[in-house]
Each structure stands twice: as C-alpha cells, then as structure tokens.
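Hey, resending since the last one bounced:
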Amino acid sequence: MILDVQQLKVNARKKWRWENHPTQWKEGLPPTKKERQALAQTLSSQLNDWQEKLHAEGQRKVLVILQGMDTSGKDGTIRSVFQNVDPLGVRVEAFKSPTSTELARDYLWRVHQVVPKNGEMVIFNRSHYEDVLVTRVKGWIDEKEEVRRIRHINEFERMLSETGTEIIKIFLNISKETQRERLQQRLDIPEKNWKFALSDVEDRHLWSAFQNQYAQVVSKTATPYAPWYVIPADSKSGRDVMVLQILLAHLQAMNPQFPQVDRALWPQTID
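The structure tokens again:
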C-alpha cells in the first residue's frame, strides 16, 4: 500500500483553501492502527538504510522542518519516524524563545548555526518560520517586516538548496477539536501535566489568526527547492506513515551511494 505523497504537497500556484487540507486521511494507508505502526517500523528501517548511504557519501545533506499548532505532534513524529535510525546519523534542533545573544543578531543567525553539514540529516522542531508566524499573530512585527522576512527566508532556503541541502518542510495539520482533546489530556493525566503551559490556552484563543497566518506563510514559501507538505495529523499512526513516505521519496530521488574504494592498496588479510 503506497501513498501518493504528491497529494500532500502544497501547490503555490493554487489559492490556499483549508478545506483542501483535511486533518484526517485514509487513502493509501493501512486500515488499522496496529498495521500502520508496523508499517512505520519497516519504513523507519528503510530510512536508516538511506541515511547510512547519505552519511557515507558525505556530499549532501537533508533538512527536515516540522511546524504545527500546539499539540500537533512534532515531538511524537520525531520519536516515531526516526525510531530505527542510527542516532549518530541525525540531529534534532528545537527552537525556543530566542536568547539575548540571538536577539542581538538577525533572526536567521541562530538557524544558520545549526543547519546540516555534509552527510547529515537535521530535524528542526519549529524553525525560522516562527519569526513570521508567532511574531505576526502577536503583533510584534508589521506587514512590511513580514514581507521582508518571507523574502529573506526564500532566499536563505535557496542558498541552502544550491549548496547541497535537500529541504523538506512539513506542517502537521490537526483539527481544533483534536487540539482540545490533547490539551485536556495534559490537564487530566498526571504523567502529562509537565507538558501543559498556560500559553497553550492563550494561543488556542488565537486559533483562527494562526490558521490564517500559516495559510499565508506556507503558500508564499512553497518553492520547488523547498516544498511544503501538509500532513493530516489527527491520527498519530497515520501521520507517522505519511511523513516517513515523504522522507523516503526525497531520499530515493537523491539516491546517495556508498563511495567506491580502491581495494588494490588493501591487504588481503588482517594479521
């Protein structure tokens, strides 16, 4: 059972409509949660095989950008998608509120410090997109600055692409009801209390504003060299399979290979 990942890819030439981006999806996915979890295990092992080749080749790199509303499952996606990937081959960068050192520089400075090097796969848990999402919704920047930053981001990602970085941007799309249920779990389940923050409730009141801003930003930054995919993420197991198939499609297209070695200079046996 194979998902056509192109169905999830954002077409910047089409007018954005949220009704075209559902939060639930069944097509191309196994029917049961158990089957989806088993498939995710298999696909994660395949991802490890490709990452090993990427690392051995040492010529290109992969940047995965995860965005989504609070409780959309960014942490869980990382755990599940990379469950069978050698931890030495990947790096996760989580972007919190900028420090005083970061605020003293341009907003892309801290991002550029941690982009992947050759042979590396890096996952951004949130990213530079917060600087045109939260900042705009909260009124910290005006429309003129937003336009300027979107231009910066497109040019920044073009530079990364042209210097060998495969960029895959993923928006985890959940419904407002799913967010309510997950926030309620953080209140009700003691083991999840630590995840709850009052800011989550405050941002929930701005749901429509965030949705509108995401629509604007994603449509304006969906480019051939740095595509966006909108993942129906109400189902965690379905979400994981879809993200894995997208990553595998990109790595298969890159087709990294183990480097050829000159065995003529090698000994035949080791004493």
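The radius of gyration is 20 Å.

Sorry for the duplicate.
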